Amino acid sequence: MSRFDQWLVPKKIYDAHLHIFTYKGMEKRVKQAGMNSVEEMAELFSKRTNNKFEIPPKDTNELLKRWVGEMNANNVEKALILPDWNSTEIVELASKDYPDRFIPYLMINPMEEGAYELMVDAFSKWNIRGIKLYPPLHYYHAYDKRLTPFYEFCADNQLLITYHMGISIGQSADLRFMNPSDVSPIARDYQKIKFLFAHFATGYLRELLFLMYHLDNVYAESSSSNKWMEYLPYKITLKEVFEKIISLKGTGKIIFGTDSTMFPRGWRTAIYQRQLNVCNELELSQEDIDKIFYKNLKTLLV
Ligand SMILES: [Zn+2]
Q: What distance in Å separates the CA atoms of residue 115 and residue 287, rounded to the nearest whole number?
């Protein structure tokens, strides 16, 4: 089952984790980080990810077009956009020019002034389907009362929430805010919201499984190289991660993503192939593979 030409492949691909960083967004980051230039920031990105990071074009239309080209080349039907923090620029453009290709989403730092209004406005204008929150990067517990209006709004409007918990590529992350158990009272009290944990909760597989034991509205999102596996004090493989979740909760709880971020790398084919390889090694059926690579996310978008 290891030869690529013998693999079962999904009928379609939905990617639940595609970052589109704009030039404007980078300028904002540069200011916030007290850096001197976009070039300096790009260099830092390259270093952290061990990959060349090309500065995005100033014309955001051009950037979006390039990503659509990548999606076409890799048979990705839809991608969930993760824009710059508290920015709607890319969502606005994507909704106008490629409404069938992108799932509009926001990355929200709820500690920044105007974040709530930004979310409400984006929902009314572009029908965003959810938000991503990153507590260890913005220093709040997921159960912080200041988040209540956000959760209320997401519940009332059937918006998804993607969390990045666990370890982080962000140098400034505060580990006190990274435990997915923080989400437990929220996921319990807001059953209407579906919660996606990016990168299998990035080191907190155990807590993610515990949450899944208690609650049905918790999902494992599979994106990135899942490097967190190397930082556990025991050996674990991606195959074992998939196997564990599937054996406990079936294939309905895993949502495929790549965490594609930058050019020239583009869409992360290697991550797709690695996960598809795992699914084939586990001898999943066509139906199960379709669920993981697009149907599960599609179902959550209604
Ligand atoms: Zn990401």
A: 39
